[in-house]
Specification:
The chain is of the alpha+beta class and 187 residues long. The protein contains three helices and nine strands.
């Protein structure tokens, strides 16, 4: 008398590696291992451009930057920037107390993710507060804009999403304010 094993159905004589289900189940973990290897490769071969090496000094400099923001607010500074792609020119106007402000200025355009595309321009605002500078390539991106005088006594900063914003207006007084500590206020 022959008995059949309930664990192995009759007629299933192929070994496991000839079945498609084990391979299909192993495909998921295999793809994860490949993706992890590629991610590791990217992590070790690409430089992190957004990490600042001297972060402590940069953190201490924030207080000085806040003083420069307050100084710009005291002068009631405002600026407007516009880029003309046909002429490859960045033009602008700066005013203090609503009147034209003539001075040597430094204009910095920092790319959101690629520091090698950052631009630093030295411009001179005329008696009408107007200035212009040649800017051959102005990439469609998000730009951090910083305008400061030659002595770095004040600064205007903002974000320009070009070309969604054709013109950027900066106004002093939009500075970071820190809320008082509630625990200290309760004492």
């Amino acid at each position: 008398m022959t008995t059949t094993s309930p664990l192995r159905p009759q007629g299933d004589t192929e070994p496991w590696y000839r079945q498609r289900w084990p391979w299909l189940l192993m495909l998921g973990p295999f793809v994860v291992v490949l993706a992890g290897g590629y991610t590791g490769y990217l992590a070790f071969t690409r430089q992190d451009a957004l990490v600042v090496g001297d972060y402590y000094s940069k953190g201490k400099a924030i207080n000085q930057d806040l003083r420069r923001d307050r100084a710009a607010g005291g002068l009631e500074l405002s600026a407007a920037l516009r880029y003309d792609p046909a002429r490859a020119t960045l033009t602008g106007q700066i005013a203090s107390f609503g009147k034209p402000y003539a001075a040597d200025l430094t204009l910095q355009l920092a790319h959101a993710t690629q520091p090698e595309k950052d631009v630093k321009l030295k411009v001179r605002a005329d008696a009408d507060g107007k200035f212009s500078a040649a800017l051959p390539q102005f990439e469609h991106s998000r730009w951090q804009v910083l305008i400061e005088n030659g002595e770095r006594d004040w600064r205007l900063d903002g974000v320009w999403i070009y070309p969604a914003q054709k013109e950027l207006s900066l106004r002093a007084g939009n500075t970071l304010t820190v809320a008082p500590n509630r625990a200290a206020a309760a004492e």
